[in-house]
Amino acid sequence: MNIKDYKENFDKIVEFFKEDISGLRTGRASTAMVEGVMVEAYGSRQPLKAVASISVADAKTLNIDPWDKSLTSAVEKGIRESGLGINPVNDGKLIRLSLPELTTERRQELIKVLHQKLEQAKISARKVREEVRTVIGTEEKAKSITEDDKFRLQEELDKMVKEYTDKVVEIGEQKEKEINTV
């Protein structure tokens, strides 16, 4: 049994966390903010990135170009209903999103959401740790590893969990700085 076999599970947690917080708005425009906005298209709900190209025009503006121009109003409606607090401007071809300045209250809300996502990532890491501990216990009961091996593996596992938790916290702190940067 090798603890490093479970490294991939922890890598997935970190990657998911990075992707999850990329949608949190900082002071500059990012396509990740709207990629997941659901749009009613062709009789079903689809993410915006599946029906339009999204580009950053400048630090405060996103351009959305629906591939099928008949979906322009559906895309506009999806953005309005998304709860992002952004008012889309439709010029017939493109939809422009001008991002308003973040208020202090909105920054605080975003930081609360960030902390919730951070806690979820930590919980996921602890779940993986418990699964691995169960495997270690089972291995010891089956006599395939010694009691000394069990303690050594648990110590290795705890070090790995701490390393990944620290990594997630560091990413969270960087994102919090971005949100607070005016």
Layout: helices, strands, pairs:
Elements: H1 7-22, E1 38-41, E2 44-47, E3 52-58, E4 61-66, H2 72-81, E5 88-90, E6 95-98, H3 104-141, H4 147-180
Antiparallel strand pairs: 1-2, 3-4, 4-6, 5-6
Helix pairs in contact: 1-3, 1-4, 3-4
Task: Provide structural commentary.
- It is a single chain.
- By secondary structure, the chain is an alpha+beta fold.
- It folds into 2 domains: 3-21 and 103-180, Orthogonal Bundle (Topoisomerase I, Chain A, domain 4); 28-98, Gyrase A, domain 2 (2-Layer Sandwich).
- 54% of the residues lie in helices and 15% in strands.
- The protein has 4 helices and 6 strands, in the order H-E-E-E-E-H-E-E-H-H.
- It has a 4-stranded antiparallel sheet, covered by helices on one side.
- The longest helix is centred in the C-terminal third of the chain and has 38 residues, at 104-141.
- Spatial strand order of the main sheet: 3-4-6-5
Under CATH at level 1, the class of the largest domain stands as Mainly Alpha
Radius of gyration (CA) equals 22 Å
Query: How much of the sequence is in beta strands?
Result: 15-25%
CATH topology of the largest domain: Topoisomerase I, Chain A, domain 4
The named CATH superfamily of the largest domain: Ribosome-recycling factor
Count of discrete structural domains:
2
Structural class: alpha+beta
Give the end-to-end Cα distance, rounded to a whole number of Å: 49 Å
Could you estimate the helical fraction of the residues in percent?
Answer: 40-55%
